[in-house]
Design brief:
With 300 residues, this protein is an alpha/beta fold. Helices cover 56% and strands 13% of the residues. It has an 8-stranded mixed sheet, sandwiched between helices. Helix 11 packs across helix 12. The structure holds NADP nicotinamide-adenine-dinucleotide phosphate (NAP). The site of NADP nicotinamide-adenine-dinucleotide phosphate has 26 residues, from helix 1 and helix 4. NADP nicotinamide-adenine-dinucleotide phosphate (NAP) binds next to helix 1 and helix 4.
């Protein structure tokens, strides 16, 4: 890499720590910035990086600026730091929704001589090794040095085994509405449905062999994570409401087939799901994987 100094705005957060460690390991001089000074200092000590209380100073010194703060606050932050960025600096965010951030970064590169890219790592703060995980990339543009500067960063990711998926904001937001928003929603609703049925989970567990146990553990692992971020992923994504409407229609159709004991209607919905999933790479061995997960849960 030709750039060596990176400032991470939101560096005291979960993803800030992951990337602070990552860039430090790659020889960068890492500085973190966030508003809560005590937490900022504590994380800087824990990760072994510098900290800076002044947003302006932290940005002015950096060759690369990473913004890793909540989705809603990111476009304003990008606007705010524009005037502090060094000429030819590279700036990127890692938000889970792209439309508004992409527009803010486009405005930025049209106003200042800087380079902009938008990333979405498809992993959370619990990651240990990034190999074979996906990082989604949206190229935005910048100065005549753009290609060299962003390729340095992307080559570094590739050298660690990260899989790069390049896309546009609309496609990104539609697809993550399905790959993040939908599984989050279904698992939140699953636990709420059980709660509303007024049955303690431990009791239900006595009535299960496989499917429920796996589903329950999956839902429990989701419900313990960051509530606000999960809310933002669904609320800030304009395309999620369309998915919700589709879901409501589907649920009505499903209910009708059950109410009317309409096996033909039920079969139609079932077969559509089956045909769709046949195209997937995991389809053939899915039952095998299922029992591999079960072995872990049953301690065998
Ligand atoms: N967590 C995930 O699984 C995951 C995965 C992929 C992408 N992302 C994206 O990564 C970003 C950060 O997520 P996270 O889970 O790391 O969040 P987090 O743990 O809540 O950390 C947020 C960080 O941003 C700082 N911050 C919050 N509001 C700020 C503001 N207005 N100005 C300056 N700093 C601010 C916080 O510190 P102070 O409050 O002290 O300022 C903290 O350092 C989000 O955009 C999210 O969509 C998260």
């Amino acid at each position: 890499m030709t750039q060596k100094k990176i400032t991470i705005i939101g560096g005291s957060g979960g993803m800030g720590k992951v990337f602070g460690r990552y860039f430090k390991r790659h020889g960068f001089e890492v500085t973190i910035y966030a508003r809560n000074k005590e937490r900022l200092k504590a994380v800087a000590t824990e990760v072994g990086v510098y900290y800076e209380f002044s947003l302006e100073k932290s940005v002015k010194q950096a060759d690369i600026v990473m913004v890793t703060i909540p989705i809603k606050s990111t476009p304003d932050m990008i606007k705010k730091i524009g005037p502090y960025l060094k000429e030819n600096a590279l700036i990127f965010d890692i938000t889970s929704i792209k439309k508004a951030v992409f527009e803010a970064l486009e405005d930025l590169k049209n106003t200042f001589p800087v380079n902009c890219i938008s990333l979405h790592p498809m992993f959370g703060p619990g990651i240990k090794d990034m190999k074979n995980y996906v990082i989604i990339v949206l190229k935005i543009g910048g100065t005549d040095k753009y290609d060299v500067i962003i390729n340095n960063l992307l080559d570094m990711f590739r050298s660690d085994g990260l899989i790069i998926t390049e896309t546009s904001p609309d496609i990104h937001d539609k697809r993550v509405a399905l790959t993040l928003g939908v599984p989050h929603m279904l698992n939140i609703l699953f636990l709420n449905l059980l709660k509303n049925a007024n049955e303690p989970l431990n009791e239900l567990t006595k009535y299960t062999g496989t499917t429920f146990l796996l589903q329950k553990v999956f839902a429990e692992s989701i419900i313990q994570r960051e509530m606000e971020m999960f809310g933002e992923i669904q609320m800030e994504n304009q395309q999620f409401l369309t998915i919700l409407e589709m879901f409501e229609k589907l649920l009505k159709k499903y209910r009708k087939s059950i109410e009317n004991k309409d096996m033909k209607g039920f079969n139609e919905i079932f077969s559509q799901g089956l045909d769709y999933s046949k195209e997937d790479n995991h389809f053939e061995n899915s039952y095998k994987y299922f029992y591999e997960f079960m072995k872990i849960l049953k301690g065998k």
